[in-house]
Amino acid sequence: MVAASFSAGAKAELCRSFPQKHCCALAECFGILLYGNSFQASGIKLVTESREFAQTLPRLFQRAFDVEFDSFPSLEAGGKLTFQITEPEKITRIMNSFGFDPGQTTALHVNLPVVENTCCRTAFLRGAFLAGGSVTDPEKGYHLELTTTHLSVSRETEALMREVLDFSPKLALRGGAQVLYVKSSEQIADLLTYLGAPVASMGILEARLEKELNNKVNRRCNCDDANTSKVVDAAQEQLSAIRKLKKAGKLEHLPAKLQMAASAREENPASSLTELAAMMEPPISKPAMGSRMKKLVGLARELPGD
Ligand SMILES: [Zn+2]
């Protein structure tokens, strides 16, 4: 449900702008039809769950083709909203607007003259996303996809996106449908901004930033909780042992390597064993440093009064 609502939010945002030019209205409808449920000589069918999109659709078709839907839902209805055009005359007019003949047997494709202008490319992709697209809630992951049933449309849309956005979405086949998808948060954000949904785009970037910050904080906390406190406790024990040995006049009689280890610890109370080991001359291994510290602590324990 949450995933659907992020997608729904992005679509609602896109529907706030209505194509100003006739060329763009036509291109947006082209995207909608090619990515809709059915675009055939026998009928046109569009199904959506977006109320905002459902509100825009009749106006868009009016503007692009001067055509009304033969059946459309009440906007008060819940769930999926279905729009249909069944009158052959209307279908012919729509098909002709894109250079298709309803009687033709060739498959539908992205007719390039329709998306020749820069403004119309944006409109086409916006229509494709409104009718056949979805974007996952960024809290759950980064995924945006466009799904069509028309074989060559996916490939042609991919080429179009590569041209206008400087990156290529991936192509996949899912149960007979052609899927174009993007998995990078940055590319999804770019695409949403390009389509005209800067708020949704910001949502993607903010979610990513939050995730990155959380990871950083988590890493630091783990360190604090598990390791740092252990390191600090051990260093305290070593320091008090060294002080005791010094006070008892024992330290100066110990082997040079133990004295060296003791003074390194005294000068660097917060350093890890690895760091202290590296300070020795010549440098020694961490376990070797550990055993020197253990020796110092053990000797201090043998002192009377401990
Ligand atoms: Zn245009």
Describe this entry's structure for a reader.
The chain has about 300 residues and is α+β, with helices and mostly antiparallel strands. It has 2 domains: about 1-195, Roll (Endonuclease I-creI); about 230-300. It contains 11 helices and 7 strands. The protein has helices at about 1-15, 20-35, 50-65, 90-95, 120-130, 150-165, 185-195, 200-245, 255-265, 275-280, 285-300, and strands at about 40, 45-50, 80-85, 135, 145-150, 170-175, 175-180. It has a 4-stranded antiparallel β-sheet with strand order 4-5-7-6. A hairpin with a 2-residue loop joins strand 6 and strand 7. The longest helix has about 50 residues, at about 200-245. The radius of gyration is 34 Å and the shape is rod-shaped. The protein starts with a helix and ends with a helix. The mean pLDDT is about 90. The protein binds zinc ion. The site of zinc ion has 8 residues, from helix 2 and helix 5.
Shape, please? Answer: rod-shaped
Low-confidence stretches: none
Number of helices: 11
Number of domains: 2
Largest beta sheet: strand ordering: 4-5-7-6
Features:
binds zinc ion; Endonuclease I-creI; four-stranded antiparallel sheet; alpha+beta; single chain; 306 residues; three-stranded antiparallel sheet
Layout of secondary structure:
Blueprint: H1 2-14, H2 22-34, E1 38-40, E2 43-48, H3 51-65, E3 81-85, H4 88-97, H5 118-132, E4 133-135, E5 144-148, H6 151-165, E6 170-174, E7 177-182, H7 185-195, H8 198-247, H9 256-267, H10 273-279, H11 286-302
Helix pairs in contact: 1-8, 2-3, 2-5, 7-8, 8-11, 9-11, 10-11
This protein binds zinc ion.
